Amino acid sequence: MTVTPLRPLAEKAQRASLDVAAELSLAFAQTAAHYDASTEFPHENIRQVHAAGLTALTAPVAFGGRGANLAEAAEVIRLIARGEPSTALILIMQYINLATLPASRWPAHLIARVIGDAVNNGALINALRVEPELGTPIRGGLPATTARRVADGWSISGRKIYATGVEGLTWAIVWARTDEEDVRLGGFLVPVDAPGFRIEKTWNPLGMRATGSHDAILEEVVVPLDHAVDIRRPSEWDVRGEGQAAWFGMLPGALYTGVAEAARDWLVQFLQNRVPTNLGQPLSTVPRIQQAVGEIEELLTVNRRLIASAARDIDEGRGISQSEAGLIKVVTTENAILAVEKALKLTGNHGVSRNNPLERHHRDVLCGRIHSPQEDTVRVGAGKLALGL
Fold first, then answer.
1. The CATH number fitting domain 127-236, selected from 2.40.110.10, 3.30.450.40, 1.10.760.10, 2.30.30.40
2. For position 70, what pLDDT does the model report?
């Protein structure tokens, strides 16, 4: 009897997931312009992701998931983002939650229920944290959303903004404070079909237009007592723990690298086919153009290598600090933005025409600066750490 080593089996599964993601990317690219123009939620894309077995990619095998590590998840996100980045952002939130829930303080039966729902039904989950007055909790402050103790559990009321993917969610982890004298705050697990939970369609951004990141309004939404899945005193919270910080550092960079690669692909085709009359040959033959494209390749290569290296360290137990994860997010998103801006410089009016996808890629990639952790908080934190403050 021949025993096949575990590593080759794992590598085969990873190749399979990347092959599937590449195929999905090509399909999603065909409708990306439609979703961008309409701001419709990409339900069909999500359906195809689930049919392809990628909805629960990062859920542990013990729960029925694929058990993918961070390096594999980052590659899947990069590939899908080349086709349609809003779909990729929705999956980022899914992958982070499914990967980190088993090690959380949640009740075991709720972990099993949520992950099982993702595995079997393609159910999506995300945390709803940002508020009109609060902004993002990563900058500090208490949420206005309040959970009040009632006979049947908790009654939650409040408004969340920029709720990524809310149109397609089954589960929401709502960041709220309690009405107790000794205030606690944290995550409350809320089914989005619960009475009192409604969506107000406010999402009309420059880029990443299909994420369905509308406002979520909770009006006396009642959940069972144990759905206060992780609430603590404010002083006990590190708003984003080391585990999630690593994933939030790598996956947005992978997404926007994918967007920049899509821009690069269109640019290469344009330069190969564009033959100005005064030149008499394709623009791709001009040394100055070749050097500029090389600069784009430099930025993308650095991104891919940096993300892959850091993700491998994390997967192999050589963790990185929250500060380092944030710096990687900032560097890779800024590199992606610069790569697309260089492409725009080479194409002139063609690049900003809505008849071509490059202007859409530009609008999408600019959104990399918005995601937490943002540049100022990352660099201030890194500076204080270096200065011993």
1. 2.40.110.10
2. 97
Percent of the chain with pLDDT over 70: 94
For residue 232, the one-letter residue type is: R
Mean pLDDT of the 342-347 span: 95
Torsion of CA 175, 178, 184, 190, to 10 degrees: -40
Q: How far is CA 57 from CA 110, 166, 172, in A?
A: 19, 20, 19
Domain range list for the chain: 6-122, 127-236, 242-387
Amino acid of residue 246:
A
Query: What is the maximal distance between C-alpha atoms in the chain?
Result: 80
Decide if pLDDT at 242 tops 60.
no
* CATH homologous superfamily, domain 6-122: Acyl-CoA dehydrogenase/oxidase, N-terminal domain (1.10.540.10)
Give pTM, 2 decimals.
Answer: 0.93
d(CA 119, CA 54): 9
**What one-character-per-residue DSSP string does 213-281 give?**
--EEEEEEEEE-GGG--EEE-GGG--SS-HHHHHHHHHHHHHHHHHHHHHHHHHHHHHHHH---TTT-S
**Digit-coded pLDDT (tens) for 52-92:** 999 999 999 999 999 999 999 999 999 999 999 999 999 99
| CB atoms closer than 10 angstroms to residue 275 | 12
What are the residues whose beta carbons fall under 8 Å from the beta carbon of 213, sequence distance 6 or more? 162, 163, 164, 165, 166, 203, 205
Q: Using one digit for the tens of pLDDT, what is the confidence trace for 9-35?
A: 456 567 789 999 999 999 999 999 999
Residue with tokens 């989950």: 125
Predicted local confidence at residue 231, as pLDDT: 94
Answer CATH for 242-387 from 1.10.10.10, 1.20.1070.10, 1.20.1200.10, 1.20.140.10: 1.20.140.10
